[in-house]
TrEMBL record, chains A, B:
GO terms for biological process: methylation. It comes from the Eukaryota. Pfam families: PRMT5, PRMT5_C, PRMT5_TIM. Residues 284-447 form the PRMT5 arginine-N-methyltransferase domain. Coiled coil: none annotated. Residues 39-274 form the PRMT5 TIM barrel domain. This is Protein arginine N-methyltransferase.
Length: 622, 622
């Protein structure tokens, strides 16, 4: 009978880890067995039992403080039990004896949880003011290597929907969380458990998006949210399914809270079923697996030769090369018929995918071409030589030179390149193509014809913490925050839509033009949030109407070659809903390098980040 | 027929990874297939082929530099091929054009190997002077994240056995290696491949021990070393088996070098067979798995409560508690018969194993006792309370107090404790027991009665590098080198045998005695080596003749509770064979802490390490 949920392709499912919330069982071992019997993976429960009356303040030694540690093995405490603190603890009470008693009890329970080695401690937040709680938790996290804290709060506060509360009385639980984690300096061992609201109190999509930018560890689902479907089986309303689907990207866990004491396997099975029903990975999901929010240094293809691994990954992106081939075809068709053998030059061909695309176009159009491949990397040339010998023959002229110094015997009708980085110009495509256009005919074309970078403000303490924890021993913290990173962004909130920043067009015959740039952009924050960085994308016009884009607005479908780029702020900035975020970006250059600087001007001013390219630059030298 | 090697327990085997050395195959893909067909796991081979004549100095672009990268997938280059450099490269030649040509070729081959993404590059050292080679390799390692270098040298140099060479002409290949890695600051991505010598030129046991302290990645075995056994099958002589057995602890790989071009599966099968035949793990091997050379901070049981995980691990050490129980039994038998109910106090009982041992003794001897358990950790007391309630009843009086302040109603005939750390006194057993002896009768005894620490000089660049790479962001490098670590030592060389350092006896009724200590010790280095640290052990007399020891000389068999402790030197010291190593150690104390300082006086002087306990101390405060 439980099989009604067992549909869908077993290979395409998200494993869903479920926990059972059992506030205060008579016996933890039996409670754990009960949860296991119905398919749950772990239990959230109090580790002290209220039947042990304790007066921790007045008497050091009044009796047992909780369950004995020997009822479970360490490996069980360490994997299967999330410890809930006694809910009545309130260290932020203004009543002296409540505050003092609470503090003593909190320290004792934290100590006991640490003694047991549980993987996480769960604390319910019930109000906005948690300053004393935050202080004690921050102290404990810093003085231990392993302790994790899960803060549990409602996804939305009921006051938001109350007609009795004035605008100033309406609580936003995100503020509770934000205050707490700011006090604890965005500590990565602080996680969130969000209570799903009932159907009448669903938060707005942008509020949900903001939660998706937080370190959510679990969703807490009260079984009162379930409704019966036409088969009489409990299911969640569509709106809850949509929320769960969004959080699946964060690999959250699911905690079931129920009053039932009978068979509760149907809730667990249903969550598992959602893992199949709602999981719709895109084509590149398998390729990206494990790279979520992982920091990569942007490539420096001029100063460091790309290696065979990078070439191989790029060459797998069929969408990109098909689009390029279409662009080459359109461009070749536009070369006047009186030019008998148009000259095409692939500059920076790597191991040759665009050389192959050019040969394909010549073949398709039955039009002979003269084709140059101009590559500076001797190890890529080694491969190209092999392909000339065994595949292409004398159809390709291979040149092992930097395109900025090479003097070809011919001038080109079409120069083809793929020199774009995650931010468009950040791998020095402008400088390289300016150097190469010496051998482009005055009416010749460049593929790409132009490219534009885009930025948007984001909130992601995940990335903030990744930068901190990946700091190499020989770099300062500031250096690491003045450096952009290429990231497959998952755990973030986009505060506003991207806007266009810098554009470069080729060829560019204006001898007075420069590749330096400066621009101010303004963004709107619709709700309170934390600005931690700017994310960068780009799009490019290859030829005519043919474009490639990494901008989410019109991202080229299934293209896998580029992740977004992140420009961090050295210090997160608290933003009020309704504020304007104004940011300035520079692209600067000197004789030997190019770099970016950035600076927030509003709602608060920051110092200029990466002045003089002191922390990050792209070298022009081969 | 190959089955003659297939004996032994399949569960008790060391997996043996074997590679095949194929200097310069016509075709790498076929060579790889050949190796796979005969069961080998990887291939060592040149990535450039001599048939590609190259003059890298004079002409930038003369033709292909090596095999094309596309013959293998990146994942194959990255896992299956170790790249050998062209053997004729000699950047340390004094002939100008050889030096220049070699340097250009070396840079090209290193670049190509990096391009291919091979896991390691193998270089044969042929002489002691490799300064220019070391410089280039060090530069390349520092400028890449992944490059690993395997330096191949003979385990022993033939000149050692030549009657034609005078003493000054005899080469020690360890010096070749030691010079090289000193130039590269003990870089952890530098590994060693050692060529096994023939039976006539086996190095001495202490030379082999010194190699065992090095980062040996593989043993290179020429099939000419094999002899035929009585079944006509190739096997290695006993002396080679003994060497291989020793290196198995380092998880080295085995590279077969052969002139055969036929079926060579028997060598690979034989190595696999040795993985079963020679693997003799001790009882605790499974427990220790994965902890090899892993740094742990020494416990601070006074300032930080031990957690349930630590208690559970310790309680599993049956040998220790059986020995303790024997000691308690002997001590109780020695208490005069006229004392009707001897008073036993277990101070720091944790979760109660020594309480249980005391009850066992009382039962065995049919002698009633009065038993106190005095424990400061409230979470351990919580467990003890449960045991009192459910196991022991009123046979045990439980006190939740620090033994240094508790005032009992009785005085004890026997005080029993297990407060010893890896260095004996380093968890402040002397201070705790001095505090507790207030409630010991004047003729009462302490179990343990005494304990002594031992130290020995060692060489281990593995530990040196572990300390460097485990540095927390908020600590200086010096702080990390002024701190002792508890380590399951594997990859190290013991330069001389341990000698006794500090002894403490209990009870100690001499009111003028102090727990501060100072001692100088001298050790002999029989051969050239690198002093990187001192290792510490301890032994303890529990009662009479009953002892426990972690000193390798008389280590209590199968006892698992303690690993050695390491006192690092901030800078490794080069030691000549025949030198005396003189070291001074202090145990110092102030009102609130205890610490060690140490200093080498000979053969060279160092600054005093950890002055005033600035980097490491043990706090006395609960």
């Amino acid at each position: 009978m439980g099989d009604i949920y067992e549909s869908g392709d077993q290979d395409k499912r998200k494993p869903m880890s479920t926990g059972l919330y059992i506030s205060c069982p008579h016996d933890i071992k039996s409670a754990l067995q009960y949860a296991f019997n119905f398919g749950y993976h772990f239990v959230i429960t109090q580790i002290t039992h209220p039947s042990y009356a304790r007066d921790v303040l007045r008497n050091k030694f009044t009796g047992p403080i909780g369950r004995t540690d020997r009822i479970l093995k360490c490996s069980e405490w360490g994997r299967l039990i999330v410890a809930e603190l006694t809910p009545s603890i309130n260290v932020d009470s203004e009543i002296d004896h409540v505050h003092l008693q609470s503090k003593a009890q909190l320290l004792q329970e934290l100590g006991f949880a640490y003694h047991l080695g549980v993987p996480a401690i769960q604390i319910h937040l019930k109000q906005r003011n948690n300053l004393n709680l935050a202080r004690i938790i921050y102290q404990k996290i810093l003085s231990s290597y392993t302790l994790s804290i899960w803060l549990t709060i409602p996804m939305v506060h009921l006051s938001r929907y109350s007609t009795l509360c004035g605008p100033d009385e309406k609580e936003d639980t995100w503020d509770w969380w934000n205050d707490f984690r700011i006090h604890c300096r965005y500590e990565k061992r602080l996680g969130l458990v969000l209570e799903l609201p009932d159907v009448k109190h669903i938060p707005s999509p942008c509020e949900i998006d903001r939660w998706l930018g937080e370190p959510v560890k679990a969703l807490l689902i009260n079984t009162s949210l379930f409704i019966l479907n036409t088969h009489g089986k409990p299911v969640l309303p569509k709106i809850h399914q949509e929320i769960i689907q969004k959080f699946m990207a964060l690999d959250v866990q699911y905690i079931i809270k129920t009053n039932s004491t009978g068979d509760i396997s149907m809730y667990n099975k249903y969550i598992s079923f959602l893992g199949r029903k709602l999981y719709t990975p895109n084509e590149n999901e398998a390729v990206y697996k494990g790279m979520e929010d992982f920091l990569q240094n942007p490539l420096q293809p001029l100063s460091e030769h790309l290696d065979t691994n990078i070439y191989e990954v790029f060459e797998k992106d069929q969408i990109k090369y098909t689009t390029y081939q279409n662009a080459i075809q359109k461009a070749l068709q536009a070369v006047p018929e009186d030019i008998e053998t148009p000259v095409l030059m692939v500059v920076g061909p790597g191991r040759g995918p665009l050389v192959q695309a050019s040969l394909n176009v010549s073949y398709i159009l039955h039009r002979p071409i003269k084709l140059y491949a101009i590559e500076k990397n001797p190890f890529a040339v080694n491969t190209l030589l092999d392909r000339v010998e065994n595949e292409w023959g004398n159809k390709v002229t291979l040149i092992n030179e930097d395109m900025r110094v090479y003097n070809p015997p011919d001038k080109a009708d079409i120069i083809i390149s793929e020199l774009l980085g995650s931010f468009g110009d950040n791998e020095l495509s402008p400088e390289c193509l300016d150097g190469a256009q010496r051998f482009l005919k005055k009416n010749g074309v460049s593929i790409p014809a132009s490219y534009t970078s885009y930025i948007a403000p984001i909130q992601s303490t995940k990335i903030f913490n990744e930068i901190l924890s990946n700091r190499p021993a020989d770099k300062s913290v500031l250096t690491c925050f003045e450096t952009p990173y290429v990231v497959h962004l998952v755990n973030f909130y986009k505060i506003d839509e991207p806007k266009a920043l810098f554009t470069f067009s080729h060829p560019n015959w204006n001898q007075y033009s420069s590749n330096e740039r400066f621009k101010r952009l303004s963004f709107s924050a619709t709700q309170d949030c934390l600005l931690t960085a700017f994310v960068g994308f780009f799009d490019t016009v290859l030829y005519g109407e043919i474009i490639l884009s990494t901008n989410p607005k019109n991202h080229t479908e299934n293209m896998a070659s580029w992740f977004p780029i992140i420009f961090p702020l050295p210090e997160p900035m608290q933003i009020k809903g309704g504020s304007t975020i104004q940011v300035a970006f520079w692209r600067a250059e000197s004789a030997d390098k190019v770099w970016y600087e950035w600076c927030v001007e509003s709602p608060m001013k920051t110092n200029i980040v990466n002045p003089n390219g002191r922390s990050y630059f792209i070298t022009k030298i081969c």
